[in-house]
Amino acid sequence: MSFVALASRVIIPLQIFLAFFFLFRGHNLPGGGFIGGLLLGLSLVLALLGFGFQRIKEAIPFEPSTVIGIGLFTAGISSFFGPLFGKGIFTGVWGSTVPFIGKLSSVLLFDVGVFLLVAGIVMKVVYSLMEEEC
To answer: pLDDT digits over 64-89, tens only?
Structure first.
C-alpha cells in the first residue's frame, strides 16, 4: 500500500467532516457551500490519487452531472421561499434552530445547492482529466 493510500484513509474522513462543518457554519459565519464543496471535491481527488480512478468511480454510485443538476435545482428552489412569505426573490426566510446545524433557512438550502454544484463540477473536471490519462 502506498503512502498516499495510507494517508488518505485518515485525511479523507477529516476533509469530509470539514466540508460539512463549513457548509453548516457558512450561512451564519464565513464559510458556506462553495468552500465546503471544494473540500469535498478535494477529498475525491485525494481518493483518486490513493486508490485509483477505476476503484473510486465504481465506489461512487452517481455521475457528476447528476450532482451538478441536483445542486442547481436546490439552489434555484431556495429563491422561491421569499415570495412565498411576501418578500422578494432570494430573500432569506429563517425557521427554527436545529442542534449542530443552526437555523434552518432558505439560505442554508441555497448553500446546500452550491455545495453540491461545486462538488459535482470538481468531480466532472477530475473525472475528465483522469479518463484522458487512462
So the answer is: 999 999 999 999 999 888 888 888 88
